[in-house]
Amino acid sequence: MSTTVSQIDEVKTTPWSGGRSPFNVEYGKMMMWFFLLSDAFTFSSLLISYGSLRFSASVWPAADKVFQSVPGLLDHGAPLVFVGIMTFILILSSVTMVLAVEAGHRNAKKEVVWWMIATVIGGFMFLGCQALEWAHLHHEGFWWGSTPPLEELGKFFHEGGTEAARHMTAQEFANLFFTITGFHGFHVFTGVIINIIITVNVLLGTYEKRGSYLMVEKVGLYWHFVDLVWVFVFTFFYLV
Amino acid sequence: MSTDTHEVHHEGGEHETMTKGRILKVAGILSAITAVEFVIALLLVPKGIIPIEYANPVYIVLTLFKAFYIVAYFMHLKFEKLGLALAIIVPILFIIGLILVLTNESHHWVNLRG
Asked: How far is A43 from chain B (nearest CA, A)?
């Protein structure tokens, strides 16, 4: 309508009217957020299909009966203790990650390195625990497409349900457990690899030269997301 | 581009908001909530103090609290611009939609199987 649009544009400095970023966030960090949103959809789909299959079943393997061993210490009788250790390891590694980000804001290279190394160690510890957990369940007979023999299935259930129903839900449980914790474990694994790469870059002084440790923040987002997913996996597989 | 990112990084003034003290406080809250979940799962439910039907919603509420603290403080979303926070949080409505659809569906499956 008016031909003096450019003058009008010049005075607009508020967000959403052009001229500056309304999100006030660096491109890569914003894209990490959108990637995590898509990843949240993927994990939600997996967990919601687990929920609806479990909801529609008359019996389901009881968490406190399936998960009651502490590898290397107790074969049974300690429900949820081992997964509790895993959960605390992951929460702690998330804490060391924020501390690395916080040190990055102060440009304290040495501190960033130490907190990143602590985070990587936490990630490896979690993966090791998960490997033990998988090995234990596999030893019991659970795997994709296989369950413990029918006559042994009873010890994984509280009560009720026919043998056929138990067999079917034990199979559903095994498939979903290995798929979902496997997909989560894969995220932990890639997170550890990315954390190692970033730690090496910090050591080489890449971000010192750049003047900002924003990359540490971005991998931090990914790492916290992995922790966030575990919070849900833990609740829906081990508690509910 | 590199100068742009530099500006964005500093003008936000968001970095004063996550101090070491606050990090440790949030870590304490997360650990405490997890500890409460364990007390419910290992003591209160087995002894019959809380029936499992009541424990499950409590677990879910506690989980959502933990999710809030991780996203808001550890992932820093609370201190980002409102526009970014909304861009991330509003699409979560789709997840709630899927939950509603599939829980409804699984009720029908129960009847079919029954």
From this structure: 10
B72 and B31 in a single domain? The answer is yes
Contact residues, chain A, for B67 at CB < 8 Å? 228, 231-232
This prediction has a pTM of: 0.89
B41 and B71 inside one domain? yes
Q: In this predicted complex, what is the ipTM?
A: 0.88
B88 touches A at CB < 8 Å: yes
Q: Provide the domain limits for residue B95.
A: 82-114
Kindly state whether A142 is in contact with chain B, defined as any CB-CB distance less than 8 angstroms. no
**Would you state the structure tokens that stand for residue B16, as one six-digit string?**
């004063």
pLDDT digits (tens, 9 = 90+) for A65-89: 899 888 877 777 788 889 989 999 9
Tokens representing B36 are: 């409460």
CB atoms within 10 A of CB A186: 11
How far, in Å, are A42, A215, B95 from residue A4 at the CA level? 48, 42, 46
